[in-house]
Specification:
Largest interface: A-B, 24 and 22 residues
Helix content of chain A: under 10%
Order of helices and strands of chain A: EEEEEEEEEEE
Order of helices and strands of chain B: EEEEEEEEEEE
CATH superfamily of chain B: Immunoglobulins
Shape of chain B: globular
Number of strands of chain B: 11
Oligomer: heterodimer
CATH architecture of chain B: Sandwich
Number of strands of chain A: 11
Number of helices of chain A: 0
Strand content of chain A: over 45%
Largest sheet of chain A: 7 strands, mixed
Largest sheet of chain B: 6 strands, mixed
Helix content of chain B: under 10%
Radius of gyration of chain B: 13 Å
Chain lengths: ~120, ~110
């Protein structure tokens, strides 16, 4: 149980384009979903927290107009990187928390490369 | 502000050589302390949650313990497949966000 998927696993795009990443909880309803970013050999940095049907809460320093988060249902959240630039290249990982648990279960991650 | 410090940064063990990883933390009201395992290019895999000092949890060759200031992840008779980065994270009473340490990269050689 507690499986979280992400799609796509890898994406390469040109500078200036937008990229959408999907995060799905496959076997449970996710009250809260989280989006993290991880640089090589670094730990996870929380970007934003989203609750189903509510606006996402962004961490300090994260541009909400650049990283659009939608949590439209209890099993799906999306992260859209708008007007991507090479410095947005990173490993993006989502996690999901169920209704009656403190534990976050993570997706497999999405490797974004912006040329 | 919550702080999580993991040591050592890297650890190399021979197969069968037991050891411990440390996670020191400061938090204003601990909701939970979490251990995850992360393989290269993958998302973290949940291992344990600890809620109060004195609590211990075990899973195969891994055992996690918690005090008021730190947590240990003990690895008994490790195998090469235990090689990974082990991440510690704390959750405080303000919400469910996780604050991660930088991790310990473990390499177990045959």
């Amino acid at each position: 149980g507690a499986v979280v998927s992400q799609h796509p696993s890898r994406v390469i795009c040109k500078s200036g384009t937008s990229v959408k990443i999907e995060c799905r909880s496959l076997d449970f309803q996710a009250t809260t979903m989280f989006w993290y970013r991880q640089f090589p050999k670094k730990s996870l940095m929380l970007m934003a927290t989203s609750n189903e049907g509510s606006k996402a809460t962004y961490e300090q320093g994260v541009e909400k107009d650049k990283f659009l988060i939608n949590h439209a249902s209890l099993t799906l959240s999306t992260l859209t990187v708008t007007s991507a630039h090479p410095e947005d290249s990173s490993f993006y990982i989502c996690s999901a928390r169920g209704l009656d648990t403190d534990t976050q279960y993570f997706g497999p991650g999405t490797r974004l490369t912006v040329l | 502000e919550d702080q999580v410090t993991q040591s050592p940064e890297a650890l190399r063990l021979q197969e069968g050589e037991s050891s411990s990883l440390n996670c020191s933390y400061t938090v204003s009201g601990l909701r939970g302390l979490f251990w995850y395992r992360q393989d290269p290019g993958k998302g973290p895999e949940f291992l344990f949650t600890l809620y109060s000092a004195g609590e211990e949890k075990e899973k195969e060759r891994l055992k996690a313990t918690l005090t008021k200031k730190e947590s240990f992840l003990h690895i008994t008779a490790p195998k090469p497949e235990d090689s990974a980065t082990y991440l510690c994270a704390v959750q405080d009473n303000s919400g469910y966000a996780l604050n991660f340490g930088k991790g310990t990269s473990l390499l177990v050689t045959p």
